[in-house]
């Protein structure tokens, strides 16, 4: 009997450890006094037992039970265990929030203006907040449904474009253009390495020469130079005036037509005299030892 009692006690201890350990893993503290409330929802959005209950971001309890309200179809009653010290003001409500990963948590929103409180096992109203996923389902899904036919037509057009031989030719031309740009880039690199430095040196030499010329021009007496230029231009003007007048030889030569005709006639007579001299030289030059003058 003593051995059997020990085995029985060990079995009972194992069951107790299993019970309390299982509750601990579910977040239930068996040794901590708690108060029990009900929350009624029209949709619990996948809320599970042992889900945490928060108030202002702080965990104040867990979900213990979830039952369908057969007396009021369309509603689900959720039993929650809260810390015994938690007092819920009347007018407060619970809200279910669906997070990004699909998990659902319950938030209690307190009516801080109320001076009265719910008693244990009272029923609080609950609302469902689908969060970002719910908003996406409400707004994005209808838009996606409207966009699907357009996306289908876009894909068909894209397939036609990809199957068009002109696209392959365009890509080939782009490849050739890229090769040409690479060759041009290499030529530009060569130009920058060889010709541009030489051109820069030439420009530097030209700049230095211009600097020397500028320094030389700086020492020139421009006033004296312009006075000499004015004097020269004045002499040229006087010479031009004399050439236009008839009171001098050059003026008569350039302006008197009679003198021109006389000079022209004299030139003609001189030419005729030379021709006659060539034809009959004995008329003008006589040299004879024995004969007489040829007439």
Automatic annotation (TrEMBL):
The chain crosses the membrane at residues 7-25. The keyword Transmembrane helix applies. The keyword Membrane applies. Keywords: Coiled coil, Membrane, Transmembrane, Transmembrane helix. Residues 167-194 form a coiled coil. Residues 35-99 form the Mce/MlaD domain. This is MlaD family protein. It comes from Phocaeicola acetigenes. Pfam families: MlaD. It comes from the Bacteria.
């Amino acid at each position: 009997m003593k051995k059997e009692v020990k085995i029985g006690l060990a079995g009972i201890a194992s069951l107790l450890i299993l019970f309390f350990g299982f509750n601990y893993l579910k977040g239930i503290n068996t040794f901590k006094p708690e108060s029990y409330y009900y929350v009624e929802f029209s949709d619990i959005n996948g809320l599970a037992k042992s889900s945490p209950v928060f108030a202002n971001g702080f965990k104040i309890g867990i979900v213990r039970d979830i039952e369908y309200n057969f007396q009021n179809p369309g509603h689900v009653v959720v039993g929650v265990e809260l810390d015994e010290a938690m007092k819920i003001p009347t007018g407060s409500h619970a809200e279910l929030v669906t997070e990004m990963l699909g998990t659902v948590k319950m938030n209690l929103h307190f009516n801080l203006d109320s001076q009265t409180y719910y008693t244990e096992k009272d029923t609080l109203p609950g609302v469902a907040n689908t969060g970002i996923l719910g908003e996406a389902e409400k707004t994005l899904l209808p838009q996606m449904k409207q966009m699907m036919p357009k996306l289908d037509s876009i894909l068909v057009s894209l397939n036609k474009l990809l199957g068009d031989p002109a696209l392959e030719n365009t890509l080939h031309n782009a490849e050739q253009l890229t090769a040409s740009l690479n060759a041009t880039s290499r030529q530009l690199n060569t130009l920058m390495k060889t010709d541009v430095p030489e051109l820069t040196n030439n420009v530097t030499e030209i700049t230095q020469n211009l600097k020397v010329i500028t320094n030389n021009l700086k020492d020139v007496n421009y006033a004296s130079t312009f006075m000499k230029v004015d004097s020269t231009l004045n002499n040229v003007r006087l010479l031009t005036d004399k050439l236009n007048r008839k009171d001098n030889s050059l003026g008569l030569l350039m302006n008197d037509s009679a003198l021109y005709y006389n000079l022209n006639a004299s030139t003609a007579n001189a030419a005729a005299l030379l021709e006659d001299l060539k034809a009959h030289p004995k008329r003008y030059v006589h040299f004879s030892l024995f004969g007489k003058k040829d007439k």
